[in-house]
Structure formats: C-alpha cells, structure tokens
Design brief:
With 226 residues, the chain is of the alpha+beta class. It is 19% helix and 34% strand. Strands 7, 8, 9, 10, 11, 12 and 13 form a seven-stranded mixed sheet that branches. The protein is rod-shaped and about 90 Å long.
Length: 226
Amino acid sequence: MKGARAFPGVEYAAGISGDIYLGKPEALIAAGLLTAEHIPGWPGMPPTSATFFDGARVDRRQRVPHDERWMHALRYGNNIRLTKGISAEEKRRREEALRAEIEEEDRNQPKTDIGMDAALKAFNDASTLFKVGDKVRVGDKPAVVTGEYQLRRVRSSDGEFFDAAKGYRVDYRPGYTVQYRNGEEFFFAAGYLSDEDDAPTHLRLVAGRSTQAARPMMEFRERERM
C-alpha cells in the first residue's frame, strides 16, 4: 500500500471505492480513524469484519450508500484493514485517473510487431507536403527530397512494437528519403524535416512518451475504431 497519509503505524492507499487504511487497532484508534467499538473481534463485535453507516453498525446484508458515511473494518491477521467511503465525485475522479494511467502504460508498452501490411492499413491519410526534388532542411543542414512520402519500419528506442527476433523496439513511421549535398541519402520521419524557410512540418505526426499527444500509431488505431 502506498503511504499517502502520515499516520504513525498506519499504511494508506487511495482505492477506487474508498480510502484504505491498514494498521494495528491501537494505531488506527490513535489516528482517530475509528474507536474501540469498531474493532472486529473485540468484546461485543463480530469476529472478523463489521460494516458501519453514520457510526452505527449495520448488517452486511443491509443495503446502504457507499459514501462518506460508510465504513468497513476487516481483521487482517493482527491488523485491521479499514475502508472508508468517499463521495461520488471523488470516486469518478479516481476512476478517471486510473483509466488515464492504464492508457499511458499501454501506450508505452512495446507490442508484438504487426508487420508492414498491417501498418500500411493504419497509414496516415494526411496530404503529402513535400515532393521529390523539393529542397528541405534537416536540422541546420540543407538537403533534397529523393524519395516520396512513405511508411518505413525503423528502429526506435521508444518504439511501439518489439522485434523479438532482433531484440529491439521498432516503429512504423511516415517520412521521406533525402540526400545531403555530399551525396549521402537517409530516411527521416516526416517531423524531422522543415522547408527552406526552416518552418516545421507534419507537426501532428511528431509524438512520444514525453509529449501530451499519443504516438502516431495510437492516432491511427483510434481513427480506425470510429
């Protein structure tokens, strides 16, 4: 459990349905989280668990709202696992935060390589900005476009897919083949190129785990679902 609140001898976690505390009965009482009348197994109490609403014990079969007035105490070895209800607004906020966290982990987790055919199906339908023969810049170096806009499989340290045979991450990225003045040719993802006036292009295709935008392949996937 994550220690999010400072109560001596008590561990805390913000659960989806409520605040969860774990500690010995004495520590929970000292923290003001419950009283001796709430401890399962103590005189006059059920042996293992008890549910309360507005401070009064209720039968476990009795249906009561799980809001701030609700509380459940469960004996957990020598400790008590105490769950306190939260408001509907706070529950929604925590659910949304968890969903966002799961989606972010999914975006950053490498997936099995889908192959070129499947990647082409997801290829971006944006209009091509540069044509073969156009003068461009890669960083501060002038170059000429020698290969048309296309999808290429490239090695990438934060790629969305994993090449199990070669042991590294890869991505499928749209871009161009360009030639430097010395005659060398290289493929660059579209977002690395700028026009002769050094204006950036293909901005919405530039994404990574450090930006708020989803990766390009995630954009394609979301569009396919629509």
